C-alpha cells in the first residue's frame, strides 16, 4: 500500500513565547521490510535557529529544535509518502501465558527490543492491582500469550467508550480505566498497564491510521489525529505483535508507525520547554490518503 | 584504692560501657583506651567539666554564626535544623586509614568499570553476570545516555562510601554514593567547629588536614574545562534542597559559581551561563542535582529545576558532569548482591572491603536463603538507593511473609542486619558509646583517586544501630586521622587550611543579579511600609477620631501596597519581608552569613508580631523594633558587603524603590488639598525630621518638604539623590562603558533626573510627581530587560 501522509500540529500562546526548545517525533519510521519512506519532509514555523537530528534509545527519529525569536504561534508539518507492507497473519506460536516469564528471564541483553524494558512501571504507566485483577478475568482461559493480548484488546474495545472530551493528554491509565472511556492514548495506556500486570511485556506505538471512508461518502479531510496502539511481546519466536485496542484489530498494512517506546512519554510527538505563560491552544490535523499507483512514486503529486 | 580515684582518665570514663558483641572505637576489648585515643582522652579528662561544656558551646556557637544548617522534612513542611554536631571527634590511626583508603580506591575503580559497561557495551548483562531486568527496571539507568561516552573519559569523579565496623572488627561497605554525594562541605564545617573546641589539642595531635584534598579536586575540575574562557559551576536544585547550605558553602570555598538549572542555557550544543554580560561558556558542572531532574526535554518531563537541552551538550562532548548523568544506577541496593562476583570477574580477586551481605530475591536460591533467614534480614526495595538504615525499607506484612517474599521476588533484596561498632559521644555531660558509621569521600584527580583524610562520622542517637540518620536525630562528628609522625608537617607543602589565591570574579549570573535587585527592593519596601505603619498607629493612638482625613490618607496610601491597616501587622508586610528573606536565600553564596541571619531574624520577628501585636501604640512600638532590625541589616550590607557587581544590583533595587516610594508619598501627602498634618507625616516617613529642623528655620510647609524630600541632593532620602546613586551604579555595569553610548535605561534615567533637577519647589506639582512615578517604574522594566532576563 502506498500512502500520502500529512500531519500538522499548531500551537498558539496567549503571551508570546520567548524562544523554546522542542523534541519532535513526527516522521514515519523506516522499518525494513515493513515500512519504507519514499519521501519525507518536516517543516517548522517559525524557522528554528537550531535543528539537530538523532535516533533515540528506541530507534525513533528525533529532531531537537530551538526557536529563538518571540512567537505567539508555532506550527509543525510532517509530509511523507510511505510504502507499507502488511505482515502476513502468522501462525500463533506464542507460549502459554504461564510459560512466558521463563522466556523473558532467558532474554539477555538490553537492546531496544529486549522485553525487559517493558515489564514494569514506566514514566506514564504504573501497573495497578485493580487493572491487573480485571485483566486476569478478561483473559481467563486464553490458551496462548497472543490469545491473551487479543482477548484483552477486544474486551477494552467492548467495554470502553471512545470520547475525545472525557480525557486529555495527561490523563493517567488508572483514571481512564475507572471511567471506561477516553481516546486511543488512554486505551493504549490501559492495555499496556493490564498486559504488564499479567506478565506480558508491552509498549506504546504512535503513528497514523488510514481512515476508510464510509461507502459512497467522501473522506473527511483533517478529521483525524495521530493514532496510538500497543505492541506486546509474545515470546522469542513471535516477538513483538502490534494490536490496536481502539479498533480491536491486529495491526497490519493500515497502520504506519512513527515511534515506539514504553509509553506516551517516550514517543510524545512534540515535547517542549518554552518560556511563556498562560494556557496554550493546540490544533492537530492528519490526512492519510491512499495513493492509487503504488509502483510509480512521483507520478502522483505529493499533497503539500 | 587511692590510685584509682586519682586517675582522671578512669574517672572520666566511668560509666562508659560498650555493649557486648561489637567492638568499640575508644576501648580495646580489655577495657584499655586504644593508643590512638590516649593523648586526646587524657586531655579531656584533665579538663574541669564546666570548661569542657563551655568549649562545646563555643563550637555550637561557631556553627550557628556560620549559619550551618540542613533541612529536615516533616509531615507537611521542610524546616531548617541546626547542624547536629557530636562534639567528640572520631579518631583513627593512619595505618587503619591507609587500609580503608586502599580498599575504597579499589572499589571506586570497580564501580567505574561497571558503570562504563552499563552505558557502553553492556557485556555484564549480555553475558549474564547482571540480570537484565534489574538494570532495565531501575529508574536511574537513563536510556538517553546509553552509548554516550563522557567527555572526561570517566563517569565517576567524586564518590562517597558509607562504611561501618562489624562485630569482628572488620570494616564493611554499607552503601555506595555515586549520584551526587553530599557531606564534603559539612565535613569541612565539622572540622572548623571541632578545631575551635579543641584548638590546643588539635594543634599537637598530628591530625591530617583537609584543605589539600579540596585544592587537588578544585584543580582537577579547572583542568577539565574547555579551552578559553570556559568555567566550572556547582549545579544545585535550589534553596529548598536538604543540603543547599552545603552547596553554597562549597561554591564559596572553591570559588565556583553556584548555579540553578535556569541559569544555564544551551546554544548550538554548548552549555552557557546567563550572566548580566550575556551568555558565557561553561563546560564543567559539579552537580548536586539528581540526574533525572537535569533535563526536562529528555528526562523527567515535569522537572522545573533542570536545563532543557543539557543532555545534548553531554552527548556532543561539550560538558563534563561530575558525576556523569546516570551514575546513580550504582547506588541501587541490589547491585551489592553482585559486587563480590563482579570483583572476581573484573579484577580477578575478592573485594578488599566487603559490602554488607545482600541477596536479590529475583533468583530462586537467593530468595530461598532470604525466606529461611528473615529473622536476621532487613528487607527492602531492590532499586532503593538510600542507606540500609535510612530510606527504601519497605514494611513486609506480619502474616505470610514467606508468600510475600516469593510474590515480590525481583523487586526486593534481603540484607544482613549489621551491628555497628560504637564510638564515644557526649550525652548529658558524660561519655557514652553510640553506634557509628563513616562517610568517606574520594575525588578523582590528575594522579588518580584521592581520599579525603577524614570525612564525617554519623553517631546514633540511641544505642540502637538503626537510628543513625540525621533525619532521625542522629549526630555527626569530625573524623581525625592521626599521623604517626611527631615532627611538624613538611614546610614545602602549601599552607594547610589556607585560602586560595584571589581570582577575578566571574560574570554575575542574571538570576543572582535579579535576586539581589529584588532583595534591595523588598527590604526598602519593607522599611517604607514599616515607617508608614508606625506613623499611622502612633497617630491613631493619640486621636479620638480614627476617621480623620490624615488617617484616611495613610490608609489609602498603604492599600496601594496591599496593606490593610485593620490588621496591625498586615499580611502584605509579612509577605514583603518573607520575599526579601526568600531572595536572600537564593543568593546565599554571594551574600554575607550575618546578613542572611539578620533577615531570617527579621522574618521570624514579624511573623511573631503578626500573632500578637495590637492596634495603636503597641503596633507603633512593634514597628520601631522592626525598623531597628531593618537598619541593622542595611548597616551590615553597606558596611560589610564586597563591592562586586551584585552589590550594585542590590543598591540599585534599594534606590529605585526608595525613589518610587518617596515620590508617591509626596504626591499623596504634599498635595495642595492634603491635610496640613500630612507634611509632617511625609517628613517623618522620609526620616528627615531632624534635617528639616536644621535646614529650615520655619515649620514645615509644602515648599520646604518638597525641597528636602524631592530636590535636595545632599539628603540621602531625597528622590534626586536616589536617581543620582542609580546613575553612579549604572556606570559600573556591563555595556555602559563602550563608547559612552547611551542605553535605553541610561537615557530614561538621565531624562528623569534632569527633569527633576530643573524643578523648583514652587512648580513641582502632583502631576509632575505622578509622571515621575511612572518613569521610575519604566526604569525597572528597562533594567530587567537589559540584565535580568
UniProtKB/TrEMBL annotation, chain A:
GO terms for molecular function: peptidase activity. Transmembrane segments: none annotated. The keyword DNA repair does not apply. It comes from the Bacteria. This is Transglutaminase-like putative cysteine protease. Residues 176-247 form the Transglutaminase-like domain. GO terms for biological process: proteolysis. Keywords: Hydrolase, Protease.
TrEMBL record, chain B:
InterPro entries: ATP-dep_Glu-Cys_Ligase-2 (IPR051680), CP_ATPgrasp_2 (IPR025841), DUF403 (IPR007296). Pfam families: Alpha-E, CP_ATPgrasp_2. This is Putative circularly permuted ATP-grasp superfamily protein. It comes from Aliiruegeria haliotis. Residues 89-459 form the Circularly permuted ATP-grasp type domain. The lineage of its organism: Bacteria, Pseudomonadati, Pseudomonadota, Alphaproteobacteria, Rhodobacterales. It comes from the Bacteria. Residues 508-788 form the DUF403 domain. Gene3D superfamilies: 3.40.50.11290.
